[in-house]
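Marked as duplicate of an earlier ticket. Keeping the data here for the record.
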Amino acid sequence: MRRVLLAAGLAWAGCVVAPWQAQPRKCGADQDCRFVEVCQSGACRVGPLGEALPPLPPVGGTGGAVARVITDRADLLTGNAAHGRLGDVLIRNSTAAYILQKPGRDIGPLPFGGNVLDAVSVVGGAPQPDEFGEIQPLLNLGMTVDFRDIEIIRDGSTGGPAVVRAYGRPSLWDFVNLGAFLSEGLSTLIPFEPDGPLPVRVVATYTLQPDSPVLRVTYTLVNDGEYGLQMPVGVVVDSGGAVEPFRAEGGFGTPDYSLQGILDGSKPVPWFGFTGRAGGAAIRPHPVTPPLAGDSTNPTVQVAGVTVSIFSRPDILAALSESEFFLDAHGTGSFGFDLAAAGPSLADASAALLRQQGRNLHSFRVRVTDTAGPVAGALVLVRAVNNQGELVDAIATGRTGPDGEAPFATPPGPRVVQVRAEGYVSPTPQDILGDVVDVGLSTAGRLSYRFLLADRVDSPGLAPAPCRVTVYGPPQWTDPALTAADADAPHDGIAAVRYSATCSSDDDGPIAVAPGRYLVVATAGPDFDHWEGLVDVGTSSAAVAGTLHRVVSGTGYVATDWHQHTLNSPDSPIPLRDRLIANMAEGIALFGGTDHDVITDWEALVEEFGYSSRIRAINGVETTPFEYGHFNAFPLAVDPARPSGGAVDWAGGSGPGLAPPQIWEAQRALGARVVQVNHPRSLGGSPFQAYFDVAALTFEFNPAGRTGTARGDVGAQPYSNTRMRIPEGEPMWGTGFDCVEIFNGFAPYPGAVATRRAGDRRADRILLDVANMILVGLRPVMTGVSDTHKLKRGDTGYPRTYVRVRRPPAGALPDPWEVLGALAGRSDTANRGDVVVSSTPIPVVTARANNQTVSPGGLLRAAGPVDLTVEVQAPAWMGLDTADVIVSPGGMPTPSNDAPELTVAAAAALTPQDTLLPNGGTRRTWRASFAVDLAVANPFPGRDATLLVRVHGRQVLWPVLLDGLRVAVDESATTPQTFLTVTGGVPPYAVTNPVFVDVDGDGRFRGAFEP
């Protein structure tokens, strides 16, 4: 087995070099030069790198291809994933347009310029919407290329192709620490250092012919070292907009993040791509040289929405152990790919790639119709058939146009066509026997809806408002090959999920479902009741209508969510407007934008979409170091000149990355007033991205001295600083954050719904961390967040953070600065720390003692009895069982991940009372009172104490919260209750931030072990 041999101590050559070493043809101010010539005594000739570049095609002949620096905004593209800016390079013809990002660095999955940033098809002279992300070279698994210069070689003005070159050197691919990620399970199979320096120069050549949509990209490398280099090479792709990944001979679907999932999903494929309703792109690797070979194979791996494709090896294990790409000392080699932009049909792009390759192809058209005529937008999947007549590899995919047709060109052989179209049952696969394949679909069903909302409890007035319509019924698609085409598919038993800004299909269009019987449920978040009804959808349209009533009001709390994702994050395909409507439909009044390392301008988007009267947003970011934790920050200004919007560059490029305390400092330097630690604990297993676990957070208490500390145990860190690419000696642990996510997603205790322990084990576990911090003098505010990456799963805004605000005028939205003050726990904010973490219920808690009345976050002076009252309002669909009080938890060894113990000082069973409201809705109210004597209940006698209140129950939060939902459908049922049986889901859970109690009477709160 050959190994990568690297010269020890080799440093990059600058512009001062020995005779016959490469001399600069052109140098930038930073002295990082591009070399294609060698010079001696003033005489220059083409050097090895220049000789290895792909030959330039002749000029003249057909025109139409152009390349130019973008100085006019009219040259910029549009669409979900359009990120080109002035100064980038446009290369286009009459069939496709591509934008190459100008040189520079900005944090993100692909941090350097010089790469393809946008890719669209051109139809009738008009560029189509962009859904493509970005693509960069990958060297040695851990390196990419920092292209420092870009040059237009042929601008197309004299006919022939347009040619652009970018010049650079290897640099650390620091967004994803792939070498460390793989080393957990494959360390014995990686016989090289993925992050090691490479004495290599790289030129990327981009060539676009006048009459082809295919952009040819060739990376030419020269080895300046004294030793041969053998290394895996390939590309990394940020998937882009609202797209699904597709692999020829692999099909739809993404592997999970487990080692086995990656191995299972890394089958080599001849080409791969990304497809959405607006567009996409297909990528075919070139063979590496040397050796010259036929078709290239490329196992692909996906990690957090980023696709890694390794060229010229049969599988991922072979690619890791021994690459076919070899550079002799001072030798050259090349690899690359063809990129074809797609319109709505990926089949157009894949056919263009195969034609470029000169393959023998069978061209045919798939024509999809129903009894009313052509069916547009149908997904067509072409699959191979083996000798036993079994369906095997997915060869290609595409979508039908307005005429109901999708053209294909695939290698010849036994093939079948499968079709998936919304509103239709998928027909039996059909053989491809000629030039036209006719697929007839049964007539579709169309479900119209119109719901009005009674938004005031004291008035029966009705008006359109946002809502969610959930349609329960039989699955629309059962074939896994077709089901995998929607990574955002709803839970089993749900046929459709629709978020609507007006709760009317008059504005959104009807919901397409196959004819049959369905249960339709309309909801508007946990402050409203719901509407449900059975409907038979036939071959003509069916309609439902009703009213939703607000039943929760006057609590003083507003619903917020401080962790959400959209297609500006590589691992989320959700369009921005869709996410915004979902927030409104779930009752979120204020949210923070937290795309991965991108500051999305949500404040401007709320205005642009016309929703400023219903919701507010604060621009923020989730800073996402690969291994050691994620951190949100608010508010942040958007820098429109940077692709990231100006996010903190935590990775550091060729230098070391930032440790968490340095990240928080950098976030605050950008204006952040609130810094939040995200998902800080895992529940067993890998500590990956769980900050408290990675920092080895440890608490030490000295009962005798009444002192304690929270510290990071460097010796117990699961990953070394070196592995995490931060300097040795730089502390991982710090206390410069304001908030801690205790409730991120759901982790109910195991067991049957009716008998399992109430609560959430992850939330209880992290609550104890925060409680211990309070004991030693820290004051983080606890938050609950959805961390949603999906839409149809119904998880937008769940869990959530309720924040107390001054009662605004009727119809007014909360002041974002007041909310931020509560989250930061600022002493100059009246509502500091008055925050409830919740799956949906809002416990309104009041603590009284010595003629004082406070709510969570407030300071109460008491050494003995404290009276607490709890009130919860909710719709009739919510069920609560218990409220309990916890006094100063913590001060003990780290609890079990599986069953964290919280000592309860007092508990009360909750009995509901229902009240008919003037608007026609029914409010359910639970009340409880507690008398807690701190002289008895305080676990640390004589020391200041905290009081927290929890409410919880075992009845799941259907129909609003869909997470973990399991349902059984009986299509023959005649009532909603018998049609749908709910067998799983999430129970209600809420916990207040603490009431701080001054027990020793010194006028302030001091943690029981605060130094």
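See parent ticket for discussion. Residues 761-775 form the longest helix (15 residues).
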